[in-house]
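ugh ok fine here u go
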Amino acid sequence: MSASDSSRSVRSLAHVHRNTEQHWVGDGFPVRTLFAYSDGGAELSPFLLFDYAGPRDFPPTTRRLGVGEHPHRGFETVTIVYDGVVEHRDSSGGGGRIGPGDVQWMTAASGIVHEEFHGRDFARDGGRFHMVQLWVNLPAKDKMKSPRYQSILDADIPAVDLPDGRGTVRVIAGAFDGAIGPAQTFTPMDVWDVRLRAGHHVELPVPDGHTVLLAVLDGAVHVDGGGAIGPAEVGVFERTGNFVILDVEHDTTALVLSGDPIDEPIVGHGPFVMNTVDEIRQALADYRSGRMGHLG
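structure:
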């Protein structure tokens, strides 16, 4: 074993989150919640929740399908579109339209009211809808900062080819092999959108001590150290080790999520995630009184 090999430590798979039950968010988002902080907040930190919407074919319609005005406080939502179009509008004046390959990174922080619908053109024509939404926690010192909105287009996300045709890594946040993702984050994290080709052996470097999750959307991989992760499943890795090693059984689309854990209490109530019960009560009061704003 060489000196470089002796410094390598391979992550083991701790367990796999899965959920076959689907529910609707509004009338436009057929969702499976693959993990949530209520089932393991400290283990998943800084990630809070992962909703997998679709894939589903929608017929043409003149209706506005989606979810109307609703609040958030204390965290960020990251929406990644694979098929379809999402239109967003919020009380801070932010908003926009994202399509295949695009990302919406919305920091609710001190509080925001927003709505999300299928894009008008997409609804009129119909088609395949397929997206994910990730909730990312904020440390206590940042939970009451001003909201912000990052619209990240596919063309602005660098893609790195893996050696020998093994696949590609799109770097949404953090870094991979010298490529820097465009998303600005409050705590250190990597969000990689990966496409892996069947029959290959893939090694991905990850920071020792970070939470590491692998969300497989389509396809299947076998993890070195035991265990498989199939479609609509999230593998949670042990905290120690600086490499994840995968044998790709089928062409696979997945998200690699790696983040520095936030070692703080998590208290959530619906669309609010704070550190104490009193802060949740205040969030409810602020929303009801209109302090988080309204959509005109």
